[in-house]
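Name: Glucose-6-phosphate exchanger SLC37A2
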Amino acid sequence: MKSPLAPGVRFLTSFSRDSWYRGSILLLTFLFYTSYHLSRKPISIVKSQLHRNCSELIPPAGLNISDNETWCDWVPFDQSNYKTLFGILDNCFLVAYAIGMFFSGIFGERLPLRYYLSFGMLMSGLFTCLFGLGYYWEIHSLLFYAFIQVMNGLMQTTGWPAVVACVGNWFGKGKRGFIMGVWNSHTSVGNILGSLIAGVYVSSAWGMSFIVPGLIIAATGVICFFFLVEKPEDVNCSPPQHHSETEPLLQNLRSNEGMINGSVTTESAEVIEEHAEAISFVGALCIPGVVEFSLCLLFAKLVSYTFLYWLPLYISNVVHFDAKDAGDLSTLFDVGGIVGGILAGLVSDYTGGRATTCCVMLLFAAPMVSCGIVFHEPFVPHAGMLLLCGGLVNGPYALITTAVSADLGTHESLRGNSRALSTVTAIIDGTGSIGAALGPLFAGLISPSGWNNVFYMLISADILACLFLSRLVFKEVQGWCRTITQKNGYQFDR
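Structure predicted for Glucose-6-phosphate exchanger SLC37A2:
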């Protein structure tokens, strides 16, 4: 008698060859971009170690501190302008990232993604390690750290357009919002792991807070070089169908052509040939929805990155936690971001309203951000508040940078041009990165006048992000109303 296959083997063989490849692409790109964010996070944790309140610390034996009140600080961050200097470091990275992102998409469309990603991760690892080596080499030059931040910012731009383009090559529209919502949790997972790893070393030898993440991202670069498959066609897998299903966002942005006496006319399906030529920058801007979502992301990312770079320092200054505890507590914001990204993807898939989902979450985010004012002095960061705030702030940011970018990058007007995805992604995320640069900069300039003013800035940014989506929200609501009317009319006719 022939024995049946073992349950584990039956489970493994139940998946097709295509499914295994698609699963591996999701896993690999998740790992890659987790390492990108993991290597960005240490500086926000180390800030509170570079400038401390030395009066609360016990000086080493034999050290005369009578005329040196900043003996425990790291030069040049030992002066009263340390917040401004931190803002300069943040913006060296973020401005370079924002500028480089617009060019990164162009390169990503024209270079093999595997080589491009591998090079970017190896170089990013190098510059992250160099920042940490400044501790062991006892470098106290602001210019050194600023240069490292600029170069690291440029290298980090290789990541996002490339991983989104790769995932877009493998997955059609379908449940893209949910799939990419889960997949996009790599941003928060990377932030959490970066905070925890940096927190282990920050109080003893802060240089290792950079060196360890730098080695991790370099190692993932090697993995990318050996295992990444860019397109299904490269391994004889079936390509995804980008336009076989109804696309509410894209259809609601069109005119009402084809709507005659309540009936909808349809065109016969056409086989669209792939374009060999990559889309131009101006051509990508002309895709309906790209400009609105880009401007919305500018303000959404301003809020998200202000929290990313300044939340640990805010907790340390206001609640008087040490650097490790402040970093650990700030991870709750990123945990909320994971849930928010998945929820935003699910809701937008079910309703077909990407813009409306983002707008509603941003509207609820504004009062949650104001809780930072309500609980100020003294401020006890409640876990629930940080989780909810993280979900509402990062949910729209995650949805726009993933599912919306992929939707617009495979827009029907492109007529099958699969080489547009990286450019569209770079435009949207590059515009958002301008906000990511401005947020920490403004926080550094405004925070000396009081943290309340920083929160007022964040609330205003949330409201402006909603306003830029108002036209798209109107179109989506109009489309829903039209669909309901048609269904009711059909039922009445029956």
